[in-house]
From TrEMBL:
GO molecular function: DNA-binding transcription factor activity; sequence-specific DNA binding
UniProt cross-references to Pfam families, sorted A to Z: Cupin_6, HTH_18
Highest taxon, organism lineage: Bacteria
Annotated signal peptide: none
Protein name: AraC family transcriptional regulator
Keywords: DNA-binding, Transcription, Transcription regulation
Domain spans labelled HTH araC/xylS-type: 200-298
SMART domains (alphabetical): HTH_ARAC
Species per Swiss-Prot/TrEMBL record: Neoroseomonas lacus
């Protein structure tokens, strides 16, 4: 499994809420931050988006936004426009003049992710993904969002499962477009790393063979670089050292396994690349802040009995 697919698989996006947003004339709305991903696609017209403490940016027709964790923001027809407080909901909303055909249309939504791996969003993905229609073809994203909106509005058999798959596709498509067409100044993280061929090869190897006891020298050789050049390039683009990245990924896999059911610590240790349950438990406590058994008891009914071994 490639790195993008592997990350999305562990995040398990689900429970989508999506709605149309329209406006006419002078309007502005303010939303508080919430710890869930949010997305939006401008269908018609344009608007200005201002994140807390940052200069406003213009969103044009066809532009797509994805927030892995949604910050507080203001959206209006002009920079600095007066804003009313908005509240997340499931029904279509209209701002500004209530009479007349709207001159602004947007499809917006949010969804849930697996909370135990939410930290992956902060350490691996950009805080904001803005795919500009002027620079990238966003028609595929538009089709996916249209399907999400359609499925949200219909109580049909199999709907939740279809929505979950559509959300996975939406995230991968957005991250893939960001990887290919994003700005060179992208913040350190998985997307920036995947843009550098040598770093991308090392990332693919670590995701495909996370059980292996990789060294920096081995990864550098596979990437076709000297050890020092590779280590510096990986740190600059991903934001951490190669072996630290591998350790974080192993811990994400371990948390997922612990919370999905009863699992032997000896077996889990071997599966993710540790020589013993003791070595794994020590590493887990260092990264997560608690013992594996304690973590397993804290998440979900499937893990309520705790791991054995």
């Amino acid at each position: 499994m490639d790195p993008l697919s592997a990350v999305i698989d562990l995040l398990r996006p689900s429970t989508a809420v999506s709605k149309p947003i329209t406006a006419l004339g002078n309007w502005g709305v303010r939303y508080s931050a919430y710890d869930a991903p949010g997305f939006a696609l401008v269908v018609e017209g344009d608007c200005w988006l201002a994140l807390s403490g940052e200069a406003p940016i213009r969103l044009r027709r066809g532009d797509f936004l994805l927030f892995p964790l949604t910050p507080a923001f203001e959206m209006s027809n002009r920079p600095g426009g007066a804003c009313i407080q908005g509240e997340p909901g499931t029904k279509a909303v209209r701002y500004g003049d209530q009479v007349g055909d709207p001159d602004f249309r947007m499809l917006g939504g949010t969804f849930s992710i697996e909370p135990m791996n939410a930290l992956l969003l902060l350490t691996l993905l950009p805080k904001q993904i803005h795919i500009r229609a002027m620079e990238n073809d966003t028609t595929r994203l538009a089709r996916i969002i249209s399907l999400i909106v359609e499925e949200c509005g219909a109580a049909r058999p199999g709907g939740p499962t279809i929505l979950d798959r559509l959300l996975e596709i939406l995230m991968i498509e957005a991250l893939r477009d960001q990887e290919i067409g994003g700005a060179n100044s992208a913040p350190a993280g998985l997307i920036a790393g995947l843009r550098e061929p040598a770093v991308a090869e090392a990332l693919r190897l670590m995701h495909a063979h996370h059980q292996k006891g990789w060294t920096v020298a081995e990864l550098a050789k596979a990437a076709g670089l000297s050890r020092s050049t590779f280590a510096a390039q990986f740190l600059r683009t991903v934001g951490c050292a190669p072996i630290e990245y591998l350790s974080r990924w192993r811990m994400a896999i371990a948390k997922n396994a612990l919370c999905r059911g009863k699992v032997s610590l000896d077996r889990l240790a071997v599966d993710i690349g540790y020589e013993s349950a003791s070595a794994f438990s020590t590493a887990f406590r260092r990264h997560v802040g608690c013992a594996p058994r304690q973590f397993a008891r804290s998440y979900g009914p499937a893990a309520s009995s705790g791991p054995s071994g």
